[in-house]
Design a protein that fits this description.
By secondary structure, the protein is mainly α. It has nine helices and no strands. Helix 1 (3-36) packs antiparallel against helix 7, helix 2 (41-55) runs antiparallel to helix 8 (158-187) and helix 6 packs antiparallel against helix 7.
């Protein structure tokens, strides 16, 4: 297998996994925001700062000079031109796959292409704002369907192995980042176990 093909399939696996992971994170944090009952601007800014640490660069977001509020942060991670964005990940995955169409099945290509256009259309029209949960759920379901098609319609050859390697490597990186950020959040200074528990603490690990 050519190294160019292997690299493209590897990044396709990583980027599609990233898109699904960010959609899951945003969906959980929007629900968590409702459960937490936080209303002060300072608390909300801290909440979204911690969220950005999981899937983007908070310093890059700060350069946009946008407030740390739900709609602006959501738009940034959905349609923003940054590596952690859902649309950016799907765009790069689609471009990586276009050059190696002979190494994937037509079903995998069609599903990835469909998912890209759905997210792009919703991002341009900002129609996702009407029902963020349904929009994010559609992305997660679409990624699940894509992975199923990868397993069921592609030959389990070297190309399939590189795609899966990229997917699971990205998942490992995301899990490590999640544990790092959330552990420090829930334990506090010195990484000591807290003496009291907030009722929403278990949701952080959901």
């Amino acid at each position: 297998m050519l190294s160019r093909v292997a690299e493209s399939l590897y990044w396709t696996g990583r980027l599609t996994e990233r898109a699904g992971h960010v959609a899951q994170l945003l969906d959980v944090h929007l629900s968590l925001l409702l459960d937490s009952g936080q209303t002060s601007l300072e608390a909300l800014a801290r909440f979204w700062q911690q969220f950005l640490a999981l899937c983007a660069d908070p310093a890059e977001y700060a350069r946009t000079e946008q407030p740390l509020v739900a709609t602006m942060v959501s738009d940034y991670v959905i349609a923003g031109d940054q590596p952690g964005g859902i649309l950016a990940a799907l765009t790069s995955a689609r471009e990586s796959t276009r050059g190696v169409r002979e190494s994937i099945s037509i079903e995998v290509w069609e599903q990835l292409n469909t998912q890209y256009w759905q997210v792009k259309g919703a991002s341009s029209a900002r129609s996702w704002e009407q029902n963020p949960h349904a929009f994010l759920q559609q992305i997660k379901s679409g990624m699940g369907l894509l992975y199923g098609l990868v397993d069921e319609t592609m030959l389990h050859d070297q190309g399939w192995s590189f795609l899966c390697f990229g997917r699971y490597f990205e998942r490992a990186m995301n899990t490590a980042r999640l544990l790092d950020v959330k552990f420090n959040l829930l334990t506090g200074p010195g990484n000591l176990l807290p003496t009291h528990h907030d009722p929403i603490d278990p949701i952080h690990w959901a």
